[in-house]
Amino acid sequence: MIFRQLFHAETSTYTYLLGSLATGEALLIDPVVEDVNKYLGLLEQLNLKLVRALDTHVHADHVTALGTLRERTGCETIMGLGPSTKAECATRHAEDGDDVGIPGIDLRALYTPGHTDDSYCYLMDDRVFTGDTLLIRGTGRTDFQNGDAHQQYNSLFEKLLTLPEDTLVYPGHDYKGFTMSTIGEEKRHNPRLQVHSVDEYVDIMEHLNLPSPKYMDVAVPANLTCGNLATAP
């Protein structure tokens, strides 16, 4: 497998490229529209064809590249299905347990609501791409886009933290220079996970007092149309 972790500095967003050596096909997780040319250049250098692009949720901090990549490569675009899913622009909506990988790369969708009600993580055998659900030494905020701290607690403690402790954690963002972690490391050292009850976790999340994401007013409407600013509501 070919694996690359790419970084968009302005929004501290990680994008992940997974390529199959057997078939020459590739997928991208959480691509950023400003970096489309970088992705396409890298794919060409690695002799890979992009066949699938996935988002972990409707982002509020950057504009997705799903629509642009589909227009330029013909790739399939996938977003997770939530109870109030509005991003109907995706080619396909994944549900919990769905196989969203490509030949040679097994990737399974895990429904992990809480940060938003359409948040998904993507699980391989040795690693998990956690989007904004589980960050390195943190967790995604739950105060907008139908976020729910109770649901996030369940997503963390009943799904992600039950994975083997050596499972690699690749988050959707990092603001302190970390690139990856493990489930065991986060269980031991993530301050938001050192709680004894759902009520204690909810209390933490309800008192973060964070400002709104810088690009939220632009990003959310655009991402409901897979990043197409021209047709955003």
Which residues form runs of ≥5 with pLDDT under 50?
none
What CATH first level would be assigned? Alpha Beta
Total strands: 13
Q: Please describe the biggest sheet, giving its number of strands, its sense, and whether it closes into a barrel.
A: 6 strands, mixed
How much of the polypeptide forms β-strand, as a percent range?
A: 15-25%
Distance between the termini: 39 Å
Q: List SSEs in N-to-C order.
A: EEEHEHEEEEEEEHEEHHH
Put simply, the count of helices is: 6
What is the second-level CATH architecture? Answer: 4-Layer Sandwich
Radius of gyration: 17 Å
Describe what this molecule looks like in 3D.
The chain is α/β, with parallel strands linked by helices. It has one domain: 4-Layer Sandwich (Metallo-beta-lactamase, Chain A). It has 6 helices and 13 strands. It has helices at residues 36-45, 66-73, 149-159, 183-189, 198-206, 216-223, and strands at 2-8, 13-19, 25-29, 49-54, 76-80, 92-94, 108-111, 120-123, 127-131, 134-135, 138-139, 168-171, 181-182. A 6-stranded mixed beta sheet has the order 1-2-3-4-5-6. It has a 5-stranded mixed beta sheet with strand order 7-8-9-12-13. It has a two-stranded antiparallel sheet with strand order 10-11. Helix 3 (149-159) packs across helix 5 (198-206). The longest helix has 11 residues, at 149-159. The mean pLDDT is 92.
